[in-house]
UniProtKB/TrEMBL annotation:
Active site: H84, E142, H146
Keywords: Disulfide bond, Glycoprotein, Hydrolase, Lyase, Nuclease, Signal
Any single Gene Ontology cellular-component annotation: extracellular region
Name the record gives this protein: ribonuclease T2
Entry's family note: Belongs to the RNase T2 family.
Length: 267
């Protein structure tokens, strides 16, 4: 090999080494600058991929959407299961309650009006109803007991927080979830409708919801009368909208419901 050829080959090899070194350094830079970027693109609560309570709900990483079928007294439209709430449960079981009394509120309706979230309030006035008619008190109870325990809604998690922003996010998200997961529609599509005489098997109810949404729900009964449905979710990122909620299979048994002879009474 001539001297000129050797020099050319050396220059080529040096260039390749520098390019490889630069590429490797560039690939490492994001991980050095922000270790959180090493997380998988999909980071679900309860998966252990993040312990940052502002990035994923923790310790209450299992969230429940709960709906009522109140037939006596009849509450809400006769073709809608009304909202009970959205509850953060611990990944390991159990739940925390009333986590921050400094953020308790007694007038949720006033907060929503003040935030120009009247669309949320209008929906709640139709579908998030207290069986005794004390709707605003019921909403306050749900926020004070459960909403204050959603870690990603803590004010310090917001980049440009405005007063009561987390309250609006909580109720907007709950109503969005309620729109998406209609127990009445899921059952009706399987031929399961309210009746004063007909009865149903628990397996029919579970199969109907699973067929529509991919996972079942946990049903609650009073005696043999169907009364409540619970949907289970993990969250991906902050739970400031329903898009963060990823449904999973029920993790609780059907409380008090017999296997057969379940009555789905009309309102």
């Amino acid at each position: 090999m001539t001297r000129s050829a050797a020099l050319a080959l050396g220059a080529l090899l040096l260039g390749l080494c520098l390019a490889a070194s630069t590429a490797a350094a560039a690939a490492q830079l994001p991980f050095k600058a922000d270790p959180l970027q090493a997380r998988p693109a999909s980071c679900l609560s309860c998966s252990g991929c993040s312990t940052d309570p502002c990035q994923t709900n923790t310790p209450g990483g299992l969230l429940l959407l709960t709906n009522f079928w109140d037939y006596s007294p009849a509450t809400g439209p006769d073709d809608v299961w009304t909202l009970h709430g959205v509850w953060p449960d611990r990944c390991s079981g159990g739940y925390d309650a009333s986590c921050d009394s400094s953020r308790n509120h007694g007038d949720i309706a006033g907060i929503l009006r003040g935030a120009n979230a009247t669309d949320v309030l209008d929906y709640m006035n139709q579908y998030w109803l207290d069986i005794r008619g004390n709707d605003n008190s019921f909403w306050s109870h749900e926020w004070n007991k459960h909403g204050t325990c959603v870690s990603t809604l803590v004010p310090s998690c917001y980049e440009a927080y405005t007063p009561n922003q987390e309250v609006v996010d909580f109720f907007r998200t709950a109503t969005e979830l309620h729109r998406r997961y209609s127990t009445y529609d899921a059952l009706a599509e399987a031929g399961i409708v309210p009746s004063a005489t007909k009865t149903y098997a628990l397996a029919e109810l579970q199969a109907a919801v699973e067929a529509k949404y991919g996972h079942g729900a946990s049903f609650r009964c009073r005696g043999a009368n169907l009364n409540e449905a619970w949907y289970y979710f993990f969250t991906e990122g902050r739970s400031t909208s329903a898009d963060a909620f990823v449904q999973t299979a029920p993790l609780a048994k059907d409380n008090g419901c017999p296997r057969t002879g379940i009555r789905y009474l009309p309102k």
